[in-house]
Amino acid sequence: MATGQINSNATEAWAGKVSPFSASYGKLAMWFFLLSDALTFGGFLASLGFARHYYNGEWPIGEEVFHSFPFLSGHFPLMYVAFMTFVLIISSVTMVLAVEAGHRKDQKNVVKWLFATVLGGALFLGSQAWEWSHFIHGSEFGKVLLQDGSWAVSQSEGHGTDAKLTALKVVEAPTQGGTYKLGEVITGQQAENLYAERLSASADNIVKGADLQGNEYGPQAYSNYFFFITGFHGLHVLSGVILNIIILLNAIAGVYQKRGHYEMVEKVGLYWHFVDLVWVFVFTFFYLI
Amino acid sequence: MAHRDDLIVNDAYALHAQHGEEEGKKVRSKIWKVTALLSIVTFIEVMMGVFIKQTSEAWHYAKWTFIALTILKAGYIVMVFMHLGEEKKNLRRFILYIYYVLIIYLVAILTIEAVKQNHKLTELFF
């Protein structure tokens, strides 16, 4: 039935049953929810920008923190995050293809593309779990507290027992009266001696990885924002995958074919695209800038 | 089943969105074009992120390029993938304008407060 036909009867229009937006209640409700959720994420990211500007030079740089790739040793700045971003974009594409198949009532293709979307979501969640684990465990040597109260981050080569400290870079230094200057780099044997000396003085002088009490990458706020923003987004991905599985099972069972339309796929699709949309912003504001 | 008068009769709007094989082909070709665009933009962003250092002079321009490219990507996702571009104009404006007003307000007030509260932030929150 065309919308024009519904609107033709003014009495009926005033009696309800007509949407001023020519969209179903379910779809409008999803848009309202997404609007509010987008403001929540907008708030997080604006707050991140607030902290980012406050700490300015001390704030860690994305490509220096995230440069590892599963199963490979070496330096791959931002590559894994880029891979995750790509996975989420592609799963958004498979979702929009499922919606398109739904508009043609093509059950076989809806099932195919929804299945691909579920796989993409699961791959993203697995990647995020790996990244969290890597972020929490940290690097081989961590961050060192020096005698004058300044902090230096370590750079190293190799892994496990072969790991070798190559340099210490001062990232925090007292404004006056300190021995070390901000940005100073200590290399070679000198760095190894200094590290060994600080370690033997107290194990508390070395901070490895990240938790809610401290982190080796930079200011405390950095790991807090990492856990909170990527965690809240990850929770959205998780619930999105669960919703996708539910509508996949319904599509296989022919529920929507019997109903005569696949609007449920479209509504869940809106949520799934939103998850991708948020990640596009998180990728830029957390990792790139 | 009990009669429900809160539902749009005969799922009219859901059925309205349906299309045939011919139209489907056009929609799919548009989807693939947007996919290519999003992938290329992401690739450019990653390359810029890897090669332009934050200490370099080009960083200032890189930062604003990142933000512009992100908004471009977001626009395509919302307008094409989420079909907001095909919804009625009043629905589109209803969603977008409310968001613009509130997000600009939020960012503005945080920026202003950031300047005022600068030195107290650490004690306040962390």
Can you characterise this structure?
The complex is a heterodimer of chains A (289) and B (126). With 289 residues, chain A is of the alpha+beta class. Chain A folds into 2 domains: 30-138 and 220-288, Cytochrome c oxidase, subunit III, four-helix bundle (Four Helix Bundle (Hemerythrin (Met), subunit A)), CATH 1.20.120; 143-207, no CATH class. Helix content of chain A is 63%, strand content 8%. A 5-stranded antiparallel β-sheet of chain A has the order 4-3-2-1-5, with helices on one face. The longest helix of chain A is centred in the last third of the chain and has 34 residues, at 220-253. Chain A starts with a helix and ends with a helix. The model of chain A has no long low-confidence stretch (mean pLDDT 87). By secondary structure, chain B is mainly α. Chain B folds into 2 domains: 22-86; 88-126. Chain B is built from 5 helices and no strands. Chain B is flat. Residues 120-126 of chain B have low confidence and may be disordered. The interface between A and B is large, with 73 and 66 residues.
Task: Furnish the topology, listing elements before pairings.
The complex is a heterodimer of chains A (289) and B (126).
Chain A: H1 3-8, H2 10-14, H3 25-55, H4 62-65, H5 79-103, H6 107-137, E1 143-145, E2 151-157, E3 164-172, E4 185-187, H7 188-201, E5 206-207, H8 220-253, H9 255-259, H10 263-288
Antiparallel strand pairs in A: 1-2, 1-5, 2-3, 3-4
Chain B: H1 12-16, H2 21-51, H3 59-81, H4 89-117, H5 121-125
